[in-house]
Specification:
- With 100 residues, the chain is an alpha+beta fold.
- 38% of the residues lie in helices and 21% in strands.
- It has a 4-stranded mixed sheet with strand order 1-2-3-4, with helices on both faces.
- Helix 1 packs parallel to helix 3.
- The termini are far apart.
């Protein structure tokens, strides 16, 4: 499975839940997460990676920085981690994922 496959599964799932999974680019700020998930008034940054791949140093910097600002950031690099994020999104209406 490629990174693009994982990203498409995420985008499709968020759409079925009534949200948006916008491609996130920030010119001049390499390493920001790939997707900005918007659902039920909440924001979740998601970095997708090919299975088994890890964050690059600049991506780790952005993950840490966004978390320090109070945002939730997830890394999806396997079907298991995708399923975890999907569970969080599904549970959103019951008090919300994106905690922790």
């Amino acid at each position: 499975m490629r990174e693009a496959d994982i990203e498409k599964l995420l985008v499709d799932y968020v759409k079925t839940c009534g949200g948006l999974a916008l491609k996130f680019t920030s010119p001049g700020n390499a390493g920001v997460p790939d997707r900005l998930v918007l659902l039920q008034g909440r924001v979740l940054f998601v970095e997708t990676k090919a299975p088994g791949k890890r964050l690059r140093p600049l991506q780790r910097y952005w993950r840490r920085t966004l978390k320090q600002l109070g945002f939730q950031v997830r890394v999806v690099n396997s079907l298991e981690s995708l399923e975890q994020v999907q569970r969080e999104i599904l549970n959103l209406s019951g008090g919300g994922p994106f905690h922790g």
